[in-house]
Predict the 3D structure of the following.
Amino acid sequence: MNKPGLLVLTTTFPRWTDDFEPPFVYELCRRLHGFDVHVVAPHATGSALYEVLDGVHVHRFRYAPERLETLAYNGGITANLRRSRWKYLLLQGFLLGLFFTALRVARRHGIHLIHVHWMVPNGLVGAALRQLLPGKNHLLVTAHGADVFALRGRLFAALRRWVAGEADLVSVVGGSLKEAGVHERWPVTAIEVAPMGVDLQRQFIPASPPPPDAPTLVFAGRLVPKKGAAQLIEALAAVAAAVPTCRLLVAGEGPQRAALQQRVDELGLTAAVEFLGAYHVDWLPDILHRGQLAVLPFVAARDGDVEGLGLTVIEAMGCGLPVIVGDVPAVHDIVTDGETGMLVPASDVAALAQAIITLLQDPQRRARLGAAGRAACLARFDWDVAAARYAAAIERLGT
C-alpha cells in the first residue's frame, strides 16, 4: 500500500551533510515513517537541487543568481533582512520560487497533505496551495517564534490571522506562542502546543564518565540579541571575582561575535572565555559535557523577537546539566524554577551572576537539578514522543 504524500515547506533545513543549520525540521521529517515526505526548501551555494536524505525527498528552489541566494540560512530570514536591507529585493523571487516549486512537486506526486513551518512567509504560500491544488487538501501550519514575535504590527497580525483561517490545524512549539495566537484572535478552533523534539536516548545523554570538577559554564546558540550572550559576558565579570577559576565556553556564531569578543577583552576576561564558533548539532553533546553548568540567559530583543521554545535548554537538560535560563515566556514549558533548573529575570545581570555563583558553589544542588531536568525532558521532549504527536495530527487531517 502506498504511503500518503506529505508536502513540507520550510526555510530552515540542512543544506548538505554535516551542515551547521538547525536540523529540527529534517529530524521531524525523517521520523514520519507513515508518509512519503517531500520537503521544499531554499537553495544555497553548494546545495543540491534535489536529493533524498534518510528517505525524505528534498526539493530546493532557486530564487536568484546563486551568489545572491543569501536570504535564508546563516541566522534566518528575519536576521538577514535586518543586517542587509537590500535583501528585501529578494523576497518576491523567494516567494515565487517557493510557490511554484511546491506546486510542481504537489501536482507531480498527487499530494494533498501540506505541513508548513513558519506562518509568515511560508504560511502564505501554503494557504494559496491549499486553494489552488485540485481535490481536497489539508493544511497544518506550525509557528516557531520569529514568525510571530519578530514580525510585529497590524499587517503581520492580519497575515497570521488569514493563514490560521486557511489552516485545518495550527500548532505552536511553545505555550507563549499559543497565548500570542489567542491575543491576535487566530480564527481556529484550537491551537495545539507541539514542540519540536530532541534525541534524548542516543545523542543528548549524560557524560560518562562525568566531566572534571572544574567551574566551567557553557553557552550554546546563535550570537544574536535574544540569546543573551551579551548579558552573560557582563555577568561573568562578577562571577570571576567570586570564582576566579571559572571559565566560559561560547558555542555558536552570529552577528554579535565581534562585539562580544571586544567586550570580553575590555573586561579583562580573555583568558576565561573561549569562543568555539559555529557547531554542528552532532558536536553539541561533547561541548555540553565539558561544562558543569549550562547558562542560557534569553532576553527580549529590541525588535520584540524572543525565544520561541529553547531547544538548547532541552539539549542541555538531556545531558544532565543543571541550567540557568532567562525568564522569558517560552521557557515556562521547559523549566520549573528551583525544581528542574533556575530562572533569572531577563536582562538582570546581577541576578544572573548571583545564580551562577550559587550553583557553582553547591555541587549537591547542581546534581539534583540536573537529574530532575533530564527526567522531565524525557517525558515530553524526546524525538519519538514529538514525532508521534505530529504524525497523529497529520493523520487526523487526512481522515
